Amino acid sequence: xxxxxxxxxxxxxxxxxxxxxxxxxxxxxxxxxxxxxxxxxxxxxxxxxxxxxxxxxxxxxxxxxxxxxxxxxxxxxxxxxxxxxxxxxxxxxxxxxxxxxxxxxxxxxxxxxxxxxxxxxxxxxxxxxxxxxxxxxxxxxxxxxxxxxxxxxxxxxxxxxxxxxxxxxxxxxx
Length: 174
Prior knowledge:
Elements: E1 2-7, E2 10-18, E3 21-24, E4 27-35, E5 41-46, E6 49-57, E7 62-66, E8 69-76, H1 78-88, E9 96-100, E10 105-109, E11 117-118, E12 123-129, E13 132-137, E14 142-147, E15 154-155, E16 160-166
Antiparallel strand pairs: 1-2, 1-8, 2-3, 3-4, 4-5, 5-6, 6-7, 7-8, 9-16, 10-12, 10-15, 11-14, 12-13, 14-16
């Protein structure tokens, strides 16, 4: 079955060949994906290389935290994509991004402030969970619109941490 995977706004063709093989673009990968004991934690083995990631469903995306990076992922077949675009029109480039805690933990640092301009990939928050510090990064450039937590606070899974408004074409300087 063929799908389109959208990862942080970039599209990739994906074809599930069988239980253990996936075509990602032009490359065929050997894969094994399994949930870890009822948690939102998954074990992923790609071509004999092991990864662990947290995956949370959101209203329109999957929130994926993998190797210290946070990604928004949407997977749909071509028909679903056409229907979504026809129903909603093209997504607004000025949409606000809501950063939610991918796992319960302790906010170690918030190196940004409200009103601050941030670049794609910039660290927005450091969250400690299961004795590991995870840097949650901006999926696109924008302005920190609202901080909802501060360093030292404990947070629950899916708790809103902050909002980032996308950069508009007439961005005001800070």
